[in-house]
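re: that complex we talked abt at group meeting.

here r the seqs, copy pasted straight from the sheet so there may be weird spacing, ignore it
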Amino acid sequence: MAVIEEYVDIVEPATESVISTIPRAGMAETDAAVAAAKAAYPAWSSVAPGERAGLLRRVSGLIEERGEELALLEARNVGKPISDARGEVGMVIDTFAYYAGAPERLMGQTIPVPGGMNFTFRESMGVVALITPWNFPLAIASWAVAPALAAGNTVVLKPAELTPLTAMQLQQIVLDAGVPEGVFNVVVGPGNVVGERLVEHPDVSKVSFTGSTEVGKRISARASETFKRVTLELGGKSANIVFADADLEKAAEAAPSSVFGNSGQDCCARSRVLVERSAVDRFVELFSQSMQEFRVGDPLDSSTQMGPLITARDRDRVASFLEGATVIARGTAPDGPGFWFAPAIVLPGSNNDRVVREEIFGPIVSIIPFDNEDEAVMIANDTIYGLSGSVWTENGSRALRVARAIEAGTLSVNSNWSVRVNTPYGGFKQSGIGRTLGPNALNYYTELKNVYVATN
Ligand code: NAD
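got the structure back, here u go
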């Protein structure tokens, strides 16, 4: 078994200073959290739907009241621009408000059958374990916590050890809103101890995991031993496809945020830009210009658009993608302290290059020329991933054709924006199983029951 330190230092990536030191949980704390969630489940799942809705609305309201404090904490802990952190907190407020509408709308069907009728019910599952990554800590936690609680489950959340501060605040907010103790529990500890225990625990009914494809595979295998329900939101290698007939200025202006946003540490990062050959020179010129204008620096400055990477190790890992690569444009970044990395545009030698095939999770983008629509689709789909992507063209029929042909769960046309509270989000292929957000998410936090009533 892994050796557990007693405390974990929380580091600010922009300054490398320790901003907090918190206790590190192990097996015993994990088991205690699951026991608390199990004990709280019968009462919570029986709370009248209207009352549960009111409590979730109160959570949303309290997050709004403490929004600036949460955004500041997130910006410092992740190193993300404060303006992005404010936007994410806004989404968290909306997520709790949206799923506050769910408890009173969880309904089944009535199905007439010979000799009687069938009723279906959406039943809560029990204790749900949520395991989240470090890149959008509060937002991703809320995408799972809100529908799980709305459906009447109790929850144990294990945030990433690098960025647990806002999840810890969320636990207090949920209590302050009046949700009973034990309904929502947060355990901060290592993935190979706390995470593994949650996945194998006999009293956990479902695991919702957001993180790397590698860890997702392990969780999927372990969870199958007890047939736990599993939702997986994993990695990506998304394509931004730019046709020559697109509004190139608009596409190039949007491109930096689609791949350098959150310092490229975004599962939806469009790290492959496929450009129709006749437009490559003009697009690269425009993209390079907008990259130079992308403001990299102090995350707490409201005008900043990109901060540092999360750790020194990640900075070195990301830098390794530039070894031997043809860099055609490079942005700037502060010298340090802080885990800074200047954004880069590269021209790969072939579609088999590591920079094209692997998720980089840093601000590096490849330009890949194509000659026709079929080739663009073929290159876009030539990946194990299928999370996200964009199509840029002024030809409406082509936009729809290509969007339908791309093997990915969350696409946009003439925009890089496709993640919204009220629409489904998730991946094809090795980018995941199940969907987050939108009305469908509730299906993943409930079991479908069918009851036959004989009438003759
Ligand atoms: P990660 O897989 O290393 O860790 C994610 C979480 O899993 C952390 O809380 C970690 O402690 C825990 N964990 C690690 N090993 C575990 C184990 N053996 N059993 C159980 N839990 C374990 O990912 P990360 O580095 O935190 O985040 C980056 C990855 O997350 C990227 O691949 C990114 O694409 C992905 N991601 C996906 C989405 C999405 O919605 N599809 C969103 C954000 C991030």
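couple things i noticed - The mean pLDDT is 97. The two ends are 60 Å apart (CA to CA).
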